[in-house]
Design goal:
The structure holds two protein chains of two kinds.
Chain A: E1 4-7, E2 13-20, H1 25-37, E3 42-53, H2 55-70, E4 74-78, H3 84-94, H4 110-142, H5 146-149, H6 151-161, H7 166-188, H8 197-235, H9 238-244, H10 249-288, H11 292-302, H12 307-312, H13 314-332, H14 337-369
Parallel strand pairs in A: 2-3, 3-4
Antiparallel strand pairs in A: 1-2
Chain B: E1 8-17, E2 20-30, E3 35-40, H1 46-54, E4 61-66, E5 69-70, H2 76-83, E6 86-89, H3 101-112, H4 117-130, H5 147-158, E7 165-169, H6 177-194, E8 197-201, H7 205-211, E9 214-219, E10 222-227, H8 228-233, H9 237-244, H10 246-260
Parallel strand pairs in B: 3-8, 3-9, 6-7, 7-8
Antiparallel strand pairs in B: 1-2, 1-4, 4-5, 9-10
Helix pairs in contact in B: 3-4, 3-5, 6-7, 9-10
The chains are: A alpha/beta, B alpha/beta.
Chain lengths: 371, 261
């Protein structure tokens, strides 16, 4: 039988019919709400044709009856009280007072928020620097023996972050240099200077695009992987387990990842540079009918001895920034899976930001020293 | 509900993964108001059986009926309706770590129906009281709880929709004996007052002897079902080892003591 709850106009008679399952709670809720707002007086609850109650709805009904009775309304039952009431009475009697109102809401106000923000910021910089310091000190002591440098682990990370990333980095570098070259050629053509497309592509790819795009790809791919891997290990107490064995997690977990990426990123950059130049060559051949030998002659004239190195020198720095950010955020995970997701995102966003910021510093620096 | 008709009826369940046969003709019935234990060695397929009964895993052969409805061939809406009839606690609690205890407990209710915040808060209080948790636990996150509390919150969440049927996976694993005994009492009490039917997978011999009316032992890819006394008297070598090994003898000795005292 379907559940029915009815209240008369005056709010003095509640009639319940049929069994009340948990699923009927919304129906019951609406009627009970009306009872609570009704003026005090007398209330008759007719349960003579009501079936069995689930605990949930019985609790809600009992709750409202208590509230109404507390305001002086006289309550009468027609039929037997729902059987669970006895159990609920016992529950309430057994364990003290009810759920108290929200315990001490945290203080709000702009000054409090500002202060908290400043403290958090300072703490996070402190943590980042002390993390960097610990990695460095671990690196300097680990340097003395190959065993402590964990060559096998480093090689594995070079493979995972470098070798396995070759296809995607190659394709991206190729496409971006085609796009840059295409737009450049169109702008230069009215001046009859299409040949300088080669200069544009060569300088752009070697100095900036090759390394920057690679770093951004790696930040998304490896930065997130580092943070997630270490975060899960943290949640599983694996980091504590390592420490309890007298192993230094910085030496076992962080250093191999950092070294792996510092080695892998320059290698990937070489791939990206090569593919970028290949893209440029293909584009100029297709768009400007420039034969390949001539492309390479022009290329030779366009770049200086230092051009390639101006890009390449940045690669290990970017690798270091990405790996440190990823591992730091991973080790900061505690307690919950949401933290894991949040810090993984933070790792990616911050490492991309750091890479671009560092690139800007390099650009200014190179300009100053005329590199 | 007629008490002669089984609440759960497992018929000739077969499960195989590749060439590995986990179950080959597992059958048993669980009746209304019963606490039914499932026991088996590591790798005997307890979890697989539980998942099959929950409709989370399609068995290779056989059928599972819950309240007379065959769930093994069900899908979508129909299956979801059956799932609202039972509550489950998982071995490690499986609480959502990013939600507070209160949010964990109300999640099934809030998803299933449209209720106001105040009403949900009242229901949180009810469920916490039902499982004997202090009410100030409501605002805590799972990471701030002890193992015993996690099990209780998991039970509170399982009870959120007032199910008729409760599945407990290793409810007392990882608890100290006092907390485990308290949890057993709680399950017995809830069964008595709410007329629940309980299916529990457990390794805890104390829990088994205190709470379970009947036991299914998974051996040789089949189930041996009997009362605990019947199982203990069974002469299958694995069952003998399980109940008459060092730990089993201790249990038997304790029961003797209780009877003697």
């Amino acid at each position: 039988m379907d559940f029915v709850a009815e209240i008369d106009e005056a709010g003095s008679r509640l009639r319940l019919e049929g069994g009340c399952r948990m699923a009927d709670a919304p129906v019951l809720q609406v009627q009970l709400q009306r009872l609570v707002t009704a003026p005090p007086g007398s209330l008759t609850i007719d349960v003579s044709s009501a079936g069995a109650f689930d605990i949930g709805p019985a609790w809600l009904l009992r709750d409202v009856i208590e509230a109404v009775a507390a305001r002086g309304t006289v309550i009468q039952f027609v039929g037997r009280r729902p059987e669970h009431f006895a159990y609920l009475d016992e529950l309430v009697a057994r364990a003290g007072p009810g759920l108290s109102a929200r315990a001490g809401e945290p203080e709000t106000g702009w000054l409090v928020a500002f202060g908290r923000h400043v403290v958090e910021r300072v703490q996070s910089y402190y943590e980042a620097f002390s993390f960097g310091g610990r990695v460095l000190s671990t690196a300097t002591t680990a340097w003395t023996s190959l065993k402590r440098l964990r060559v096998a682990s480093v090689v594995r990370h070079v493979h995972e972050t470098g070798v396995q990333a070759i296809p995607v980095v190659a394709v991206i570098a190729f496409l971006i240099s085609v796009i840059a070259g295409y737009i450049g050629a169109q702008q230069l053509r009215p001046y009859g200077a299409e040949i300088y497309t080669v200069d544009l592509v060569a300088l752009g790819v070697l100095r900036e695009l090759g390394v920057l795009l690679t770093a951004i790809m790696v930040a998304g791919r490896t930065g997130s992987a580092y943070a997630a891997e270490l975060g899960v290990m943290k949640l599983n107490d694996e980091v504590d387990a390592l420490e309890s064995m007298g192993l230094n997690p910085y030496e076992v977990l962080v250093l191999p990842r950092v070294l792996g990426l510092v080695i892998a990123l320059p290698l990937l950059t070489v791939v990206a540079d090569a593919m970028g130049l290949a893209g440029g060559a293909l584009l100029t051949w297709y768009l400007l009918d420039l034969p390949w030998p001539q492309f390479f002659m022009r290329l030779d004239a366009a770049i200086a001895d230092t051009t390639f190195w101006a890009g390449m020198v940045k690669a290990p720095i970017f690798g270091l920034l990405i790996a440190l950010t990823g591992t730091l955020r991973g080790l900061q995970v505690r307690e919950s899976s949401r933290e894991l997701g949040r810090l993984t995102t933070v790792a990616v966003v911050q490492s991309i930001f750091l890479v671009i910021f560092a690139d800007a510093l390099f650009a200014v620096f190179f300009l100053e020293i005329d590199f | 509900m007629s008490s002669t008709r089984p609440v759960i009826s497992v018929r000739d369940i077969g499960n195989r993964f590749g060439t590995q046969v986990v179950h080959d003709g597992v059958s048993f019935d669980v009746y209304h108001g019963e606490i039914f234990g499932i026991v088996g060695g590591s790798g005997s397929g307890k979890s697989v059986l539980l998942k099959t009964m929950l409709g989370l895993l399609q068995p290779t052969a056989g059928s599972v009926e819950i309240e007379g409805r065959e769930i093994t061939r069900m899908a979508g809406r129909e299956l979801r309706e059956v799932k609202r009839r039972y509550g489950v606690t998982f071995q490690h609690g499986a609480l959502f770590t990013s939600l507070t205890v209160a949010e964990n407990v109300t999640l099934p209710v809030a998803e299933a129906m449209d209720l106001e915040e105040a009403v949900l808060a009242r229901l949180v209080e009810l469920r916490l009281r039902m499982v004997g948790l202090p009410l100030d636990a409501a605002a805590k996150y799972p990471a701030q709880l002890s193992g015993g509390m996690i099990k209780r919150v998991a039970l509170a969440r399982a009870l959120a929709l007032d199910p008729a049927l409760l599945f407990l996976d290793e409810p007392t694993a990882g608890l100290d004996p006092i907390a485990a005994a308290a949890f057993d009492d709680l399950v017995l009490y809830l069964r008595k007052t709410l007329h629940l039917t309980v299916v529990m997978v457990t390794h805890d011999l104390d829990t088994l002897s205190r709470t379970c009316d009947r036991v299914a032992v998974l051996v040789d890819r089949k189930a041996v079902v009997d009362t605990l006394e019947g199982i203990v008297a069974n002469d299958h070598p694995w069952i003998r080892e399980y109940f008459h090994g060092v730990r089993g003898r201790q249990m038997a000795a304790k029961q003797e003591d209780e009877r003697g005292a």
